[in-house]
Input
Amino acid sequence: MSGHTFGTTFSCLMTIRHISRLQRLSDNSAEHVDHLDMLAELREAHNLWDEENDVPTASLQETRMEAAERRFWDESLNIHC
Output
């Protein structure tokens, strides 16, 4: 039974090359990402999942976006006080 699960789990993504062909968002390996750029990347990912009707993943991404926006605004307020 577990062999069957293993076989079906990995049948869709066969190789790293296959994954890279399916990738629709570019990687960001920068050591530092500006707040606004990070929020734009989070929104881009959210829009992609939204287009694919992937409601659970889009909902998780909304939570991440809201947390990032709160951190951004909290830091902005602390700088100006």
User: Anything to note?
Assistant: The longest helix spans residues 55-80. The radius of gyration is 18 Å. Residues 1-8 have pLDDT under 50 and may be disordered. Residues 29 and 48 are 20 Å apart (CA to CA).
